[in-house]
Write a structure and sequence with these properties.
Immunoglobulin-like, 22-stranded antiparallel β-barrel, mainly beta, globular
């Protein structure tokens, strides 16, 4: 009995010390034990203290953390599942492949998985914080479906809605124009996402405009994403590691745009061995090389792509007086270095340029037209792990986009020269933190400061009579500061939320704008296979893109909010349900959304990017509002020999401006009532793949005259083409003018197309992998409308692409 009392006394001393009680309180509590007196109340306090002490011992948490990587290359796996089967909980790796799991108990079994990789399970003894790097082996044949479709965090369990993760294998298998794999073309097959016109690589997400998409390459904004007048995107798939698209429920860590976020991460370079890829298609040739500098410590990757059609066109034009063509190139490069376990450095770079040229030479004159545009981005990044639960990313980035055109005529009497230049530059310093204090909390916070410079337009005209610079707009310098905090909280086994707040400050000239942007996503999980989700997102955008839709060259102008032009704002509500089947290998989701947009701008009727009479761009635009709403169905079979998805969207998108269309609402140009897309990949024995893509959508809305009438010309149109008629012996110039009752009052015929691709892979004796890709674009040669025009009182349709076969060769070495 005495030994028992001594044991209790020692444990109570330790308990009072651990619980922070004073020595006097401890002595008073211990006195009945040491003196042998029985006091029911004091014994109750003693037992309670012992229980608290034991609970505090049991509740001791240790953190398991590390990186999940590809076993062959050392490439980080972004969004890999880190799952605890015994608890039914888990997390995913962040944008840099890092995970953190605070755990309690004596031990834990952790399951690591990623689409296309074999599952790996690790048992960990919880006696201290544990660093656990995990390498997953690629399972390219995907014979064992259960290794990637068995329990782990799925769309049913994720609080994030309206988000798609695009696998690079899917991008490379999707049939596209001329066999050139393209990220944006594949994204257009998702519900709620559409392209602009035939062959275009643009993105219109849930009724938004292209400028309302935040497109990030390694965290750096890219302001123009199109090559070859929009037929191809600037992203070389051989250099890309991960693609995430957010259409709604956008987390607080993203901001600055109204409609979507496209977050693209470049590959880091192989840390294990040297290798590369060479590919050639009817449009371009690509070459990628990656290698370790010091194995498992540092590496680099460089990837280039260039069209060869300009050289072919130049050769074909040697025997006449006209030479024309277009060309583009891309260069991606990245270096990464592991300083130690807790510190890593990254340096990435991208540049891409386009050029279109047309020259004509005759005996009397010579004319030249040049058009050039392109992006450059770079970022220096430092990843630091402060503790197993705190991860930080500090980055300094630079992004610029510019376009330049010139027109020159040399004649015997006089010469004429004009030039147009526009540019946007963005410098940014950003810090982001991930903090995981418990399995039920994932806290993210951070912010950035950026300095932006806008040079909207300079037009210079030179001839013998004048040497003038017109419309040299005031260069705007802006300062943008934003901060955010978001917390993903597991309130119960069925209820999870992601709550966040983003604050922004934008200063330009003498005007300062500020606002708070709340975000909320809620998940209610009915069962392991069924969940309901809803979200609310408030977004602010301080940039505008002035688009002249009548031109087929990228003459769009990026401009800043000013004292006269307010920022754009949007609120989006979304509600959805997700159901999984067949051991999580098949998922079906249904989402409805409503988005209200305020203070959108567009050109006035008759205005364009070539500003006239010295007017600034602010005097050529009008401001208005818009709305978009609809329902999206997505059926996704993720794994197996037969995989792919079916997407369907029923949607409406409208705009209204007080100065346009009599103030009445009108449909947005890319308002499409129905949009259906089907993508099927079938794995054939002996390493072959057959891929089919089918799309159908309602035709674009366009404006056409309902009648024509004759009138005298308006002021400034005295030299317009017309004819003279006698009226009371007075010659009057009559001018034929169109009558338009409504803006976007006509729809082009519906668009539909079938694309087919067949891929044959073969491993060579030198451990290389050779692939031949045969594809048919528009397999049944549907004459889809590119634009509609009127001729002699009749509407006629111009179609761009008939059936187009192509062959692409790819070699991995």
């Amino acid at each position: 009995m005495l030994r028992t009392n001594h044991y209790i006394t020692a444990r109570l001393r330790e308990a009072t010390f651990r619980l922070g009680l004073s020595t006097r309180v401890g002595r008073r509590l211990l006195s009945p034990v040491s003196r042998g007196r029985s006091d029911g109340i004091r014994w109750l306090v003693v037992v309670s203290l012992l229980l608290l002490f034991n609970l505090s011992t049991v509740a001791q948490t240790y953190t398991v953390s590390g990186y999940v990587t590809d076993a062959e290359s050392g490439e980080k796996l972004i969004g890999a599942s880190v799952y605890l089967p015994q608890l039914g909980k888990g997390t995913t790796t962040n944008l840099y492949g890092f995970y953190s799991l605070p755990l309690s108990g004596d031990s834990a079994t952790i399951s690591f998985s990623y689409i296309g990789y074999a599952r790996r399970t690790e048992a960990v003894a919880l006696i201290k914080d544990t660093w656990l790097d995990v390498e997953l082996s690629s399972n390219t044949l995907l014979e064992e479906v259960e290794i990637i479709a068995s329990p782990n965090e799925t769309r049913v369990e994720r609080v994030q809605m309206s988000m798609h993760k695009l696998e690079m294998q899917t991008v490379n298998q999707t049939p596209v124009l001329a066999g050139e794999a393209d990220i944006l073309k594949t994204l257009q097959l998702l519900p709620g996402v559409s392209g602009g016109t035939e062959g275009s690589a643009g993105l219109y997400v849930r009724g938004g405009s292209p400028d309302q998409n935040l497109i990030l390459l390694d965290g750096v904004p890219v302001y123009n994403v199109n090559h070859v007048f929009g037929f191809l995107s600037v992203f070389n798939t051989d250099a890309i590691n991960n693609v995430d698209l957010y259409k709604g429920g956008i987390p607080a860590r993203y901001g600055g745009r109204l409609s979507s976020v496209l977050d693209i991460s470049m590959k880091e370079g192989n840390l294990k061995e040297r290798g590369g890829v060479f590919a050639i298609s009817p449009i371009a040739a690509r070459f990628t090389y990656e290698s370790p500098i010091k194995k498992d410590t540092s590496s680099f990757i460089i990837s280039t792509r260039r069209t060869w059609l300009d050289a072919l066109m130049a050769v074909g034009s040697l025997n006449n007086n006209r030479t024309f063509g277009f060309g583009f190139h891309d260069i991606n490069a990245k270096y990464n270095h592991k300083i130690n376990k807790n510190n890593r450095l990254y340096l990435s770079f991208y540049t891409g340029r386009d050029r279109f040229f047309d020259t004509f030479d005759s005996d009397t004159d010579e004319s030249t037209f040049n058009f050039k545009w392109g992006n450059t981005t770079s970022v220096l990044r430092w990843n630091k792990i402060y503790t197993p639960q705190i991860f930080s990313n500090l980055s300094f980035s630079y992004s610029t986009y510019d376009f330049f055109n010139e027109y020159m005529v040399e004649q015997e009497e006089a010469d004429y020269y004009s030039r147009n230049l526009s540019r946007i530059r963005d410098l940014k310093l950003q810090i982001d933190y991930d903090y995981v204090p418990a399995l039920s909390h994932h806290l993210r916070f951070g912010g950035f400061v950026s300095q932006m410079r806008f040079s909207p337009e300079v037009v210079q005209i030179v001839n013998p009579q004048t040497d003038t610079t017109l419309n040299q707009q005031a260069i705007a310098n802006s300062l943008n500061a934003e901060a955010y905090i978001e917390d993903e909280i597991l309130l119960s086994r069925k209820l999870k939320i992601n709550a966040g707040l983003r604050g922004s400050l934008f200063h330009v000239n003498d005007k300062t704008y500020s606002n708070l942007q709340p975000r909320l996503s809620v998940l209610y999980q009915v069962s392991d296979r069924l969940s309901f989700k809803n979200s609310y997102t408030y977004m602010a955008q301080y940039l505008h893109l002035l688009t002249n839709s009548s031109l087929s060259v990228p003459t769009d102008l990026w401009v800043s909010s000013t004292e006269n032009i307010a920022p754009q704002y949007a609120q989006q509500y979304a509600l959805g349900v997700v159901r999984s089947f067949a051991n999580n290998s098949l998922e079906i989701s249904l989402e409805g959304y409503y988005k209200a947009m305020l203070q959108l701008i567009t050109y006035q009727d008759g205005a364009n990017y070539l500003f006239q009479n010295g007017d600034s761009w602010e005097e050529k635009v009008v401001s208005g509002d818009g709305e978009a709403y609809g329902v999206e169905l997505f059926i996704h079979k993720k794994v197996g020999k037969l995989n792919g998805w079916l997407g369907y969207t029923l949607a409406w998108s409208n705009r209204w401006f007080e100065e346009l269309n009599g103030g009445r609402p009108f449909p947005f140009r890319y308002d499409r009532r129905h949009d259906l897309s089907l993508l099927i990949n079938y794995e054939i024995p002996r390493d072959r793949t057959l891929s089919i893509a089918f799309v159908f959508n309602t035709g674009n809305a366009i404006t056409l005259p309902t009648a024509r009438y004759q009138s005298v010309p308006p002021p400034g149109w005295e030299n317009a083409v017309g004819y003279y008629a006698n009226n009371s012996d007075t010659r009057v110039l009559l001018f034929e003018r169109p009558q338009i009752d409504e803006r976007n009052n006509f729809r082009m015929p519906s668009y539909h197309r079938l694309d087919i691709s067949y891929r044959k892979n073969k491993d060579t004796r030198r451990d290389n992998r050779r692939s031949w890709i045969f594809s048919l674009y528009n397999a049944y040669s549907r004459r889809n409308p590119y634009f509609i025009y009127e001729s002699k009182g009749q509407l006629k349709q111009y179609s761009l692409f008939p059936i187009i076969p192509s062959v692409t060769y790819r070699l991995e070495f």
